[in-house]
Every structure is written in C-alpha cells, then in structure tokens.
Automatic annotation (TrEMBL):
Top-rank taxon, per record: Eukaryota
Family recorded in the similarity comment: Belongs to the peptidase A1 family.
Keywords for the protein's UniProt record, in alphabetical order: Aspartyl protease, Glycoprotein, Hydrolase, Protease
The protein's name in its UniProt record: Peptidase A1 domain-containing protein
MF terms in GO: aspartic-type endopeptidase activity
Gene3D superfamilies: Acid Proteases (2.40.70.10)
Pfam families in UniProt: TAXi_C (PF14541), TAXi_N (PF14543)
Signal peptide positions (record): none
CDD domains assigned to the protein according to its UniProt record, in alphabetical order: pepsin_A_like_plant (cd05476)
InterPro entries: Aspartic_peptidase_A1, Pepsin-like_plant, PEPTIDASE_A1, Peptidase_aspartic_dom_sf, TAXi_C, TAXi_N
Amino acid sequence: MFLNPLCVHLFRLYFTKVKLGSPPREFNVQIDTGSDILWVTCSSCTDCPQSSGLGIQLSLFDTTSSSSARMVPCSDPMCSSEYQTTATQCSQSNQCSYSFQYGDGSGTSGYYVADMLSFDAVMGQSSIANSSALIVFGCSTYQSGDLTKTDKAVDGIFGFGRGDLSVISQLSSRGITPRVFSHCLKGDGSGGGIMVLGAIMEPSIVYSPLVPSQPHYNLMLQSIAVNGQLLQIDPSVFATSSNRGTIVDSGTTLAYLVQEAYDPFVIAITATVSPSVTPTISKGNQCYLVAASVSQIFPPVSLNFASGASMMLKPEDYLIRSGFYDGATMWCIGFQKVQGGISILGDLVLKDKIFVYDLAHQRIGWANYDCSLSVNVSITSSKDFINEWQLSVSSSTKEMLFKLIPLSFITFLIQLLELVEFQFL
C-alpha cells in the first residue's frame, strides 16, 4: 500500500543562550554533541542570516565591541590542538582560522577568538553572583547549506565533542568543571530540558564504554531486540572504527541505522503489529496507519551495548507521527536507513532520557527520565556553588529545575528550548 497523505513535518532544535565578551552579550546557540567548537556569527559575515523564523533576535559578535577579546595567533597551542576536528590555517595577519563541515553538508569558516564566557554562580541554594572564564571560540565569517536558511537560523552552534577545543575540554583542563556533562531533553511539543556541565545523579543510569581514540561519541552496539526477541544480525555489522560504529549526536533530529540492521529491525516491528495496524509505504519510508495508541500496539525495543548496558526504547522513541489518512494517524519508523557503517542516535532516541557523557572515565550513561522534573546535580563542597546558565526560567520555576548534592566539583546548568515546526504539505 502506497500513500501520499496529509503530512506533518516535524523539526526540533535544542538551543540555549550563552554570554560572550565584555560587557557580556547573549547569543542563541544550538546544542551539538557531534561537533567540537563553540562558534557564533561574526559581525564581518555579509551573507549570514539576518533574521530567524524561530522567534529569536539574531546577534553578531563584534570583536571591537568587547574590551577583553583578542585574536588567537597561529602560535597559540589551541590552534594546533592534537584532537581538533576542524581544519585550521594561518592568514597573512597570523590569525588562527578554521573551516568545518557538518554531516548534513552545511559548513562554517572563520577565525578563533579568545574572550570571556559569563555565567551565574549560585552560592549554596539561593544567592547568585556573576562569574566568567576565558575560552577560545569561533567567529564565523562564512556559512553554507542549512546554516544560511532563515527559517531555523540561530547565532551559532555550541559543540560538546571530545576535542581539545570544546568548551567542556577547555574548562575541565583548567579545573573549572569536571570532565563530564549531562543533558535531559524533553520530547513533548512544549520543549525544554536541562544541560549540565557536570553529572546528573540518577540511580538507574547504566554506562557503556566509549570507543577509544575517536573524535565522536562512538559506542559499541552489540545487538537489537524487538519485544524481547534478539534480531538475527551479524555482529560484524556493529564493528567500530573511525568510520564505523554507533554515534550519539544531539545535533541530529532523527536516528540512522545501517542497512544490515535496519531491514531486520523494520521487519520485526511490522510482524509484531501487523494484526492491529495497516502497514504502508509513504515516500519510501515504512509507515503504519494506526487508530489506537501506539504505546498499546507497538513493541518495546532494546539497543544492547557493551558492558551489559541496554537502552530501552518506547514506541515514541523509534516512531514519528507524520500524517493522517482516512481517519487514522500515520506513524513512520523514525530510524533512517544508511548504506555506510555509522549508525547515529539523534534526538528521536535521546529525548526523555538522562544522558551523562563521562569523559574522565571514557563512558556514556543513560536512563529513562521525565525531563520536566527536577534533577540531582553535583557541586563543589569547598566553595559550595554551581555555575548556572538559564534560558527563560522564572525565579519560581528555577527552584524546580535541580537539587544540589555537595560533591567535589562545579556544575553548570543550561536550560534548553525545543522548537517544533509543523508544515502541512
């Protein structure tokens, strides 16, 4: 059965505000664990978006307007970082410049700037004081691909990758934060979530080791089970290397599965639900016409990783609602088939879960969680404060976002927004 029904296009974007420069100026930046650097649009960029369809006011970073800004010379160690994933080169003026391309084909280039990152330090559990730290970030003078589209334009991208130039690496190397960060992304249409430069504490978190010496957060997926039954997939399909494995990436909206695993996965889902739904193909995707709740019909899925860590997926974690036809709702498999050796777990899978990226111990942990609830985070016991980045949170709501547990390090909090755009085609 092939249909072209009334379709709903879903677009999610998680972003936060950061304050850069002296005096501090706010910038809206997308959260991306699949890349390293923090960059914002530079005032010298002539072809970059001037407006945004996301309901935000775009800002430009002007080095001449910040009293603490300085260009990063080519001789700076940060310009030749061993694990840097951006191509660097030197200009005639001895500026350290960069060029970076994302997986969707979009790209940015510019030069590196050293300036102050400002945030709020929460003393104990009440009073707030200003704090700041010097970081290196990108000033974008050129953008291409989706980055030029005004409908989803932001001021930049906040990379949380494993490279030396990521903010988490810069701050942790100076003892300002631990080498760990966490997020909890709300999956409902109201948006929101929390991102912590530190550890969210949750007893049910399970951990799996990262593949060593990789630029991305690459995990060792070993098997997939549908409704408790292991799928017959050759284990070599999940082998890991620089261009193989399973990557966790908050900058990816959906999820991607290599063909050798995708085909048996879809076959198993369809076989389980076929008595209760009508399977159909829409625009090349496996879909189902459903007249009842998907949670009552579709089976649970388990992604089984090294060290015995399983990621349990509800139907909403692998399905997307894509349209309506003849009084029924069309749900489609949200995993996309890829020919290469890399599977990607994007926001479709990451939402409604706590994820902890423990770089100090080279592992990632996760647990299903209601991200509208408060989370337990860790703070230093000697100074007894946390550094907190907030976005559109009232003082009454702020108390509900987190609980403080005295431990031996500083934790940053970032409030996130999720934007959902519906387009009827």
